[in-house]
Amino acid sequence: CCVVLCCVEQAPKLDGPYDPYNLQTEEQKKVFDGLRAKLEERDPPLTPLEKEWTDDACLCRYLRARQYDLEKSYKMLDASLLWRASFKPETITAAEIAPEASSGKVYVSTSRDWAGRPVVYMRPGKDTDADPDTKIKFVVWVLENASNIMNTNETGVEKMTWIVDFSNSSVGAPNGDSVKVSKDTLHIVQDHYPERLGNAFMLNAPFVFNAFWKVLSPFIDPVTKQKVQFLKKKEEYKKLKLYIPEESLEAEYGGTSTFEYDFEDWKRRMGVDVDEQRDGDAAATSSASSDAAPPS
Questions:
Q1: Which of 6, 14, 267, 269 is deepest in the core (most CB within 10 A)?
Q2: Cβ(28)–Cβ(68) under 8 Å?
């Protein structure tokens, strides 16, 4: 057991706040300084929110994603700034995505893997019939939530682990909506959340998923592909323990954690009262309709 764990990435041990800048080589620091300078000269200039988002850890992730090529890193970062200004992921509230969260199809576990990373569970068999834009918005909220709870500046943790379980999934042949959601999600994860994926485990993937994989493969970065592992049989679940402590891994995957996703518990933890939110929205809509109605 000890020999195995020595080969597994462990959670960072910090003596103080995370300092990614000084973890770089001298040559890398020069490229980093160049990227920071280009941001300061950017037109339009960064907003206060964008300045906060582009901290040292963020810049280092974009540099690593583009092998410290200054121009490519800046192009990628600039595209993400434009996307965030348009999509506004930081404004998505838990109440907005609650209908998607209610199914338990995707959630961030309360436990961490051996490297201290948040573990995200995804069960396609519980997917909803929401429109593609709503599904993508939910995935973005999950990515933002998982990124925020890492508390990178204090912990040094920058990545997350995903477990995708296709059990009880009725995945059909790729159609327009499913391909769109998959491609858009892949694009967002690779281009706007670089260096955020630690590992992804695909469990019990049905044969038809190969069609999805073939459609998406040309769009998947080779580095990302290396982080994806397929576990086809329950006997292979034991491999998960190399990455996630047994007490943190859910029981159905060979762990001893008794955690089960509960939507009411999720609402409590997220500070959401969906019923009151729905009633408030209905009242506001009714009031607006009354105000707009012509006098009789």
A1: 267
A2: yes
